[in-house]
Amino acid sequence: MKRIFVTRRLPEPVEARFARSFDVTMNVGDRRLSSADVVAACDGMDALVINTSERLDAAAVAGLPPSLKAVGTYSVGHEHLDLDALRARGIPVVYTPDVLSASVADNAMLLMLGAARRAREGQALIVEGRWKGWGPRQLIGTEVTGKRLGIFGMGRIGREIAGRARAFDMEIGYHNRRPLEAGAGLYFADEREFLSRSDILVIAAPASPETRYWLNAERIVRLPQGALVVNIARGSLVDDDALTAAVESGHLAGAGLDVFDGEPDVHPAYLRLERIYVQPHIGSSTLETRLAMAEHVISGLEALFAGRNPPNRLV
Ligand code: DGY
């Protein structure tokens, strides 16, 4: 059996599934590992299964032992890996596209509804024992039904979100480099036009140097008064100072965030702004998805070891 090191504890059935295919060494204590820890743990391993909580930059890639023949990232995002450095070292990488799109899209709807219907405030009212009973002025929210949804980054996850939003009679618009096939929604090549018609903006584009702090003060001001912002992509796409200032000023009615710049640290304003509904990066966190992600990584690594080229190969 090939030897693999897995950087985080996985749900029990997922660990059992890996153990049927590989000789697995786990990060038993599940503590967050530095790049140096990951490199050291790879000694004598045939493959590394990494998560988005660990990084492999160029220096770490250079330090990987000669035994290491492949990397599988247990994620669809891959900004934590220096792919050029891995390519240059001839270490192939597989990842988990597609299988988490439905789960992340479900979570996008939760965040959208949570922000629109002020879920954080309602929850706090009850669990803190402050609720005095029904009242017609209580927690007046925004309806998502019939609103204009703007999806920034209409990839696999964006399309799943659009499908769900259609059930809410939302008008789908999107901004991408290129338009998709007819029926995907209204394509806006012009970013200003896209923003000005997005009652609810969902950020679903990958993290990259080009998208860093994409949602900044200049773009937020173009959103309609009372708009909502949802981020299910990466925290690095949002300028936290600008977003929190817009919620405080009332220009934005609220936001729903699953991801944060510098996770697990969060901007202090997110701790107090109740109009911002927050989740701790759990978009893909369902057992069905975690198992499907494992199948992707396992079949990808097995194919690489057999000298084949798996469809989920990144490098
Ligand atoms: C992913 O797969 O990229 C998820 O965000 C989990 O890190």
Provide the fold topology:
Blueprint: E1 3-6, H1 12-21, E2 23-26, H2 35-41, E3 47-50, H3 58-63, E4 70-73, H4 83-88, E5 93-94, H5 101-116, H6 119-127, E6 148-152, H7 156-166, E7 171-175, E8 186-187, H8 191-196, E9 200-203, H9 217-220, E10 227-231, H10 240-249, E11 252-257, H11 269-272, E12 276-278, H12 287-305
Parallel strand pairs: 1-2, 1-3, 3-4, 4-5, 6-7, 6-9, 7-8, 9-10, 10-11, 11-12
Helix pairs in contact: 1-12, 5-7
The chain binds (2R)-2,3-dihydroxypropanoic acid (DGY).
(2R)-2,3-dihydroxypropanoic acid (DGY) is lined by residues 52, 75-77, 100, 283-284.
Point out poorly predicted stretches: none
What is the number of beta strands?
12
If you average the pLDDT, what whole number results? 98
What composes the largest sheet? 7 strands, parallel
Strand ordering within the main sheet: 8-7-6-9-10-11-12
Q: How many domains is the backbone divided into?
A: 2
CATH superfamily of the largest domain: NAD(P)-binding Rossmann-like Domain
Q: What's the total helix number?
A: 12
CATH fold group of the largest domain: Rossmann fold
SSE string: EHEHEHEHEHHEHEEHEHEHEHEH
CATH architectural designation of the largest domain: 3-Layer(aba) Sandwich
Which class of the largest domain in CATH terms? Alpha Beta
Distance between the termini: 23 Å
Report Rg.
Answer: 21 Å
